[in-house]
Design a protein that fits this description.
Number of strands of chain B: 7
Structural class of chain A: alpha/beta
Radius of gyration of chain A: 21 Å
CATH class of the largest domain in chain A: Alpha Beta
Radius of gyration of chain B: 17 Å
Number of helices of chain B: 2
Strand order of the largest sheet of chain A: 3-2-4-5-7-6-13
Oligomer: heterotrimer
Shape of chain A: globular
Structural class of chain B: mainly beta
CATH superfamily of the largest domain in chain A: Thiamin diphosphate (ThDP)-binding fold, Pyr/PP domains
Number of strands of chain A: 16
CATH topology of chain B: Alpha-Beta Plaits
Strand content of chain A: 15-25%
CATH architecture of chain B: 2-Layer Sandwich
Largest sheet of chain B: 2 strands, parallel
Strand order of the largest sheet of chain B: 1-3
Number of domains of chain B: 1
Chains: A alpha/beta, B mainly beta, C alpha/beta
CATH architecture of the largest domain in chain A: 3-Layer(aba) Sandwich
Largest sheet of chain A: 7 strands, mixed
Distance between the termini of chain A: 60 Å
């Protein structure tokens, strides 16, 4: 097993290479570009045998991936921000059709104003599109998710497309030491794609048809079941992964210093690192801080969140998006899950890190302090309120 | 033959919904002919079996018979009249469909 | 030797659909699929032909077929072709059937990309000159003077005032391997072109005039007549583009009457003599260009 110094994008590309996609169709957009460029290089050198389609837009990228999946091939695409929104129609198409496509989204802010830096407004806007969503926090995890995403998506009882989210620049373009597995291990973990949901010349099929009022909801119910089956498929796949690759993952969420925690931050993606350091420092000062990272946002890990927050005094979501007119997508999902289970722990929404804004340890210490002081309202970090404001 | 087949009396049960929007190709459950207001009538002695009518039918409802003439699919003919219009030998006329109650 | 009514396949891969009686589009799809045979894989975007053919559980394509997004016919086809190729499957005929809207408006970007990549697909535009499936709204292939629901003919304006976009020449300008215009009013020519297109690799484009009796305001049995008259009066030309050159398949010695062609259709009812004169002059200018630049067939 080789150790290489790779960026998040490069590590993810290695994972994709190992997953042996048969068709790659992608349109360039910062900060996804170095991933699809790495894949093009691999195709040129022969390290990766795949049909590489130079599509003329993101909509075409995912539309072509859907076509490839209909033909029975394993398909991959990648995008970000404006591109993700441009292909939005195709996201719902892919999930409704149950095509287990994997897509990497480099999380980037959405215009307006224009901003190419990291936040999670793009992926969170499409959280309801029917795609599984996982958020990587390290380049190693990115590589491993590249492999696991295909395995989970293609599980017959799941059959759901999978979006792997890599924080733009903060993960896609930062470097770390990564273990790159051997092809033999990857092949043992991920067999070739097999499905009935495809064209067939022996028994021709009609795909992607219309379903009227009498039957539509029945299809949608099945789609929901497929996504919910991922709640089991994720830990099962991770167990198999650990067996073959020797790296264990903790399931849909990752707890840090949750034992006896009184105040917890909820995070997605790379902000987790600084949140964990802050919590660790605070614990040394006698403050019972903890961090709960949502590795998966869809399907939503309601049980894990309930378990983690039940005994906690208060929690805050570090929300890298805004649900205008309401709070934030993550916050809303967390609160709904707690309410459904009768848990009354107060959870506040701290909107931070928009458009690549830095989230510092001081910022997070401030959030913990606010929790301890009983502050619960939704707020933007970094906006100082005037004293005379109501 | 890949021609779609009619499965008469088929009724879809909720439990039988396919797991995804994918199904056997060419699966028909309803006839279209009930809507027509005219139907083609053959004048056999004028028909030379050229099959121009069969070519022109948007619904594929005209077929060659073994005796070199044509017949019409009652279940799927919509009575558009393109067959009669295409016939160069006056072997086809369009008749009014008796009124359905 | 091309097919004729007796030798064409007796299979009916497109059957049982809910198209209007006399639908030109349905005829085009039906005939082309008969020619392509059992290895056809058809993609149809939102539009008339998908709307009438895929209402689960009434599924009217006997061959492998799928609906694409409205804008995504050509891109989905590109993916299908690549997906088959990646699995070593080479015996397939990927074909798209899109309307004028799905080709010249919302679908043009993906079509352009496919031609650019020379994806191995046959793209057929069945042109009924408006968004017919949604109730006759104007598209960029709606001809000058046609009334549609979004270009109604009233006291002030007598219908659509923009010229029909020339998709055939736009496609040809990409340097495509093979493109042709056709009409359901000239079926032998259409069948011959479909066979030719089916035998070539790379991206191929067929643009078929396919009248819609409902939208054009003609009787259900006048579909093929109108499609023939459109060619005969010169408002549509039958041509091919191949190996970098245009070939005119039919050069009328004398044009049929533009007035008669237009006035038979309710959608042109509001046109005045000046309008018809204008349309005729536009036709003449175009034919001057054609006769100076296109080769003649045979």
């Amino acid at each position: 097993m080789a150790k290489r110094f790779l960026s998040g994008n490069e590590a993810f590309a290695e994972g994709v290479r190992l997953a042996r996609p048969q068709v790659i169709s992608a349109y360039p957009i910062t900060p996804q570009t170095t991933c699809v460029e790495a894949l093009a290089s691999m195709v040129e050198s022969g390290a990766l045998e795949a049909e590489y389609l130079h599509v003329e837009s993101e909509h075409s990228a995912l539309s072509a991936a859907i076509g490839a999946s209909m033909a029975g091939a394993r398909a991959f695409t990648a995008t970000s921000s404006q591109g993700l929104l441009y292909m939005a129609e195709c996201l719902v198409y892919a999930s409704g059709g149950l095509y287990p496509i994997v897509m990497m989204n480099a999380c980037r802010s959405t215009a307006l104003p224009w901003n190419i830096y990291c936040d999670q407004r793009d992926s969170l806007l499409l959280a309801d599109s029917g795609w599984i969503q996982a958020y990587a926090a390290s380049a190693q995890e990115a590589l491993d998710l590249a492999l696991m995403s295909f395995a989970i998506a293609e599980s017959p009882e799941v059959a759901t497309p999978f979006m792997v989210c890599l924080d733009g620049f903060t993960l896609t373009h930062t470097y770390e030491s990564v273990e790159v597995p051997e092809s033999a291990q990857a092949d043992a973990f991920l067999p070739p794609y097999k499905t009935e949901n495809r064209f067939d010349f022996e028994n021709p099929k009609n795909l992607a048809f219309s379903a009227g009022p009498e039957t539509n909801y029945l299809f949608k119910h099945q789609e929901q079941q497929g996504m919910l089956n991922a709640l089991k498929a994720v830990p099962q796949t991770e167990a198999r992964f650990a067996q073959i690759f020797g790296r264990a993952y903790p399931g849909l969420t990752e707890g840090y210093l949750l034992e006896g925690a009184e105040y917890v931050l909820i995070t997605l993606g790379t902000v987790t690192g600084i949140a964990q350091k802050t919590a660790s420092d605070l614990r040394a000062e006698g403050f019972a801080a903890g961090v709960l990272r949502l590795r998966y946002f869809r399907p939503f890990p309601s049980q894990e969140i309930a378990k983690a927050l039940r005994q906690v005094k208060a929690a805050a979501v570090i929300e890298r998006d805004v649900s205008f007119g309401a709070t934030g997508a993550v916050h809303q999902s967390v609160c709904a899950a707690l309410q459904q289970q009768g848990i009354t722990t107060r959870v506040s929404c701290v909107i931070a890190g928009l458009g690549g804004a830095d989230i510092s340890e001081d910022d997070l210490r401030g959030v913990f302090a606010d929790l301890a002081a009983g502050r619960h309202e939704t707020r933007f970090a970094g906006i100082r309120e005037r004293r005379d404001e109501r | 033959m890949s021609k779609p087949r009619l499965h008469e009396g088929f009724s879809l049960k909720p439990e039988a919904i396919p797991f995804a929007p994918v199904y056997e190709a060419g699966f028909l459950t309803r006839k279209n002919g009930v809507w027509r207001s005219e139907r083609p009538a053959l004048v056999p002695e004028r028909c030379n079996g050229c099959l121009l009518c069969a070519l022109c039918c948007p619904d594929g409802a005209v077929k060659a018979t073994a005796d070199g003439k044509v017949e019409f699919d009652e279940d799927f003919c919509k009575g558009c009249g393109l067959c009669a219009r295409a016939c160069r030998r006056g072997a086809l006329t369009m008749e009014k469909e008796p009124c359905h109650g | 030797m091309s097919v004729n009514p007796k030798t064409i396949s007796s299979d009916e891969p497109f059957f049982g659909h809910k198209a209007c009686p006399g639908c030109g589009g349905a005829l085009a799809v039906r005939l082309i699929l008969k020619i392509l045979g059992e290895r056809a894989v058809a993609v149809l975007p939102a539009g008339c032909m998908s709307a009438v053919g895929f209402n689960f559980p009434q599924l009217c394509f006997g061959c492998n077929a799928a609906i694409s997004t409205f804008a995504g016919t050509a891109s989905m086809l590109a993916g299908i072709a690549a997906g088959f190729r990646a699995q070593g499957i080479t015996d397939f005929k990927a074909v798209g059937f899109a309307g004028d809207g799905g080709t010249a408006d919302i679908g043009i970007q993906a079509l352009s990309g496919a031609i650019d990549r020379n994806d191995d697909i046959l793209y057929v535009c069945y042109d009924n000159e408006a968004y017919m499936n949604t109730g006759v709204q104007k598209s960029s292939l709606t001809p000058y003077g046609a009334a549609t629901t979004t270009t109604p003919a009233g006291k002030r304006l007598r219908g659509n005032l923009s010229e029909k976009k020339n998709m055939f020449e736009i496609v040809a300008a990409h340097g495509i391997g093979y493109a042709a215009t056709a009409s359901v009013g000239y079926l032998p020519d259409l069948l011959k072109k479909a066979e030719k297109a089916a035998s070539i690799k790379g991206t191929r484009y067929l643009h078929v005039i396919a009248p819609c009796p409902s939208g054009w305001g003609i009787k259900t049995d006048e579909t093929l007549d109108a499609a023939k008259e459109m060619v005969d009066c010169g408002l549509w030309y039958l041509a091919e583009y191949e190996h970098g050159a245009f070939t005119l398949n039919r050069d009328p010695k004398a044009f049929g009457s533009v007035r008669d062609y237009l006035k038979r259709q309710k959608r042109f009812a509001a046109l005045t003599d000046e309008d018809i004169e204008f349309i005729t002059k536009t036709r003449d200018a175009k034919w001057k260009f054609i006769r100076e630049n296109f080769r003649r067939a045979g």
